[in-house]
Design goal:
By secondary structure, the protein is α/β, with parallel strands linked by helices. It folds into two domains: 21-64 and 354-470, Aspartate Aminotransferase, domain 1, CATH 3.90.1150; 81-350, 3-Layer(aba) Sandwich (Aspartate Aminotransferase, domain 2), CATH 3.40.640. The protein is built from 15 helices and 15 strands. The chain has helices at residues 21-33, 67-70, 79-91, 103-115, 130-145, 162-167, 212-230, 256-267, 318-321, 337-350, 354-370, 373-376, 404-416, 441-459, 467-470; strands at 46-50, 53-56, 61-64, 122-127, 149-153, 185-188, 235-240, 270-274, 298-301, 312-317, 380-386, 389-394, 419-420, 422-424, 430-433. The strands form three sheets. It has a seven-stranded mixed sheet with strand order 4-10-9-8-7-5-6, sandwiched between helices. α4 (103-115) packs parallel to α10 and α13 (404-416) crosses α14 (441-459). It binds pyridoxal-5'-phosphate. Pyridoxal-5'-phosphate is lined by residues 69, 129-131, 134, 157-159, 241, 245-246, 274, 276-277, 302.
Length: 475
């Protein structure tokens, strides 16, 4: 779709300090009117966004390593999305799919049935937010199995509604002061290769580091023990992220997800794969569970599904999805027509495979620039992730003592230099990279150079290197 706006230059540009004066004034106004309950990663107000750039109201152009938390994967003003949504806006904005129908809802469901992992007959239900998709997966699994319990994992994040808070692991800020929570949620060990919960040590008796296979086997044994304790026949669902997002971009030890698949099948438990952050091409495959060669009985999508227009989905085995009584699922805005059109545009964008290739190139470039820091510094414990879902964990060498202070300081230096990074992790000591899949190579490398320099400086206890020295190409 042609736009009346001039294209946004795909280069970093600092017109003022970050945040600039207009952002500061708008932030002060926000504080007078908006609840303090929302946190903020960077108090900068955005005027326009496109490709890998966020342009703020002071004229600064920031490199986007966040994509609105893994949402705007195909760009924050993608022409296909604009065109489809604008055409739908002219026709109608809403009917409520439970009142009268529209075809785009069915087309989105059809695409998800065809493209989510699993060679079985599927059905899809659409909602608006990720948390709603998780909640509904639990409802469906309970209805289909006649069981009530839900197994979740250490370091999990599933949302901010009451049920999903109960399923989320981290207390602060997600759960603090918000209980009591729904019961029937049981937590089991995950298989974090760097910080295995189930091995007493990361080395065995001979001082040999535990292998990924050891970590996975120990975690799986612990999952079986947890199920045995609570009665496996009482579990409706087990819900897992294929790469744990808010928990720290943790790629589970190899074999763990396959093992969970087997355990779920053995006990008749519905395996729900929460692909809300890792799905829709983010990791270089359409769905992250493809890397593990597994299929959930249900796969959850949201975030990048409609490129920023709120839409989420539960896609699962037809027998499970159809076990719910008519009228048992829904919601006023569930599968809103504007969001469905945006999703259809996203599907078109993925058709020729370029975006998946981009995700893999993003990983290769970031590995080339950042992975050597594990050996070069004493504080980068791990570089990990897949595709364009990548992270650096900061911890002291040897003790693995988490260094949230370093992650915070490095992120702040990146922000000051015009690179929007986000932190995450149970210990707050992880910097995550979630660039849009459409980011240009030169721009991405510029952002990485800034991040790398900030890490090197902070690790050496040095003041910030100036923008010019860090990246001479600064526009
Ligand atoms: C894995 C995962 N599940 C669920 C959610 C909740 O999604 P939403 O914020 O749209 O409710 C998130 C959000 O970050 C997520 O990363």
């Amino acid at each position: 779709m042609t736009s009346s706006l001039t294209p946004l230059p795909q280069s970093r540009h600092l017109a003022t300090a970050i945040p600039g004066p207009r952002s500061q004034a708008l932030h002060a106004e926000r504080q007078a009117h908006v609840t303090d309950g929302f946190g903020i990663a960077l108090p900068v107000f955005i005027d326009r966004a496109d490709g890998g750039i966020l342009q703020d109201v002071d004229g600064n152009r920031l490199i986007d390593f966040a994509s609105g938390i893994a949402v705007t994967s195909i760009g924050a003003s993608n022409p296909r999305v604009r065109e489809r949504v604008a055409a739908q806006l002219e026709r109608f904005t809403h009917t409520c799919f439970m009142v009268t129908e529209y075809e785009s809802f069915t087309q989105v469901a059809k695409w998800l049935n065809e493209h989510t992992p699993g060679d079985f007959e599927k059905r899809t239900a659409l909602f608006s937010t990720g948390a709603e998709a998780v909640e509904n997966a639990v409802k469906i699994a309970r209805s289909a199995t006649g069981r009530s319990k839900v197994l979740v994992f250490d370091e999990a994040y599933h949302g901010r509604s009451l049920m999903t808070m109960a399923m989320t692991a981290k207390e602060t800020p997600y759960r603090l002061n918000f209980g009591p929570f729904p019961t029937e949620v049981v937590r089991a060990a995950s298989a974090n290769p760097l910080r295995p919960a189930t091995a007493t040590n990361t080395t065995n008796d001979d001082g040999v580091p535990a292998s990924g296979a050891d970590v996975a086997a120990a975690a799986l044994a612990s999952v079986e023990a947890t199920l045995a304790e609570h009665g496996p026949e009482s579990f409706a669902a087990m819900v897992i992220e294929p790469i744990q997002g808010e928990g720290g971009f943790i790629v589970p030890a190899p074999g763990f997800l396959k093992g969970l698949r087997e355990i779920a099948t053995k006990h008749g438990i519905v395996l729900v794969i929460d692909e809300i952050q890792a799905g829709m091409g983010r990791t270089g495959t359409l769905f992250a569970s493809e890397h593990e060669g597994i299929a959930g009985d249900m796969t959850l999508s949201a975030k990048a599904l409609a490129d920023g227009v709120p839409l989420s989905a539960v896609t699962g085995r037809a027998d499970l999805m159809n076990a719910v009584h008519a009228g048992g699922l829904g919601g006023t805005y569930a599968g809103n027509p504007l969001a469905c059109e945006a999703a259809l545009a996203v599907f078109e964008a993925f058709e020729d495979g370029t975006l998946l290739t981009n995700a893999r190139s993003i990983e290769a470039t970031a590995r080339e620039v950042l992975e050597p820091l594990v050996a070069e510094t004493d504080v980068v414990a791990e570089f990990r992730g897949r595709g364009a879902m990548l992270a650096l964990e900061f911890a002291d060498r040897g003790t693995l003592e988490p260094r949230a202070d370093l992650a915070k300081e490095i992120s702040a230096r990146c922000h000051a230099q015009g690179v929007l990074t986000l932190t995450c992790g149970t210990h707050g000591n992880v910097i995550r990279l979630l660039p849009p899949l459409v980011i240009g190579d030169e721009l991405f490398r510029d952002g990485l150079a800034v991040l790398r320099q900030a890490i090197v400086d902070v690790a050496a206890g040095r003041d910030a290197t100036t923008a010019e020295a860090a990246a001479p190409a600064l526009a």
